[in-house]
Amino acid sequence: xxxxxxxxxLDRPAARLVAxxxxxxxxxxxxxxxxxxLRGLIAGPATAAADPLSRCIAEHHATIDKGVSEGxxxxxxxxxxxxxxxxxxxxTVPQ
Length: 95
Description:
Elements: H1 13-33, H2 35-43, H3 46-50, H4 52-69, H5 75-92
């Protein structure tokens, strides 16, 4: 390239700054659209405990574990009961 020629408009620093700005704006729009999804990731597992479905499953699992520790039923049965408890919670708790 000789000194007389001007660089292509897309090779200029201003064009690159505009491209970075557009990229950041796109990320901001995506973050805004998915803010509810991201809130769960940022907050961590504390919000999972507040979830009615998780709370229902945890309550049933605690009851089943108590039954195993008291000898009411066998650990093999507990696995089946836990699966059924999850199914029950998923069918009864609104999501």
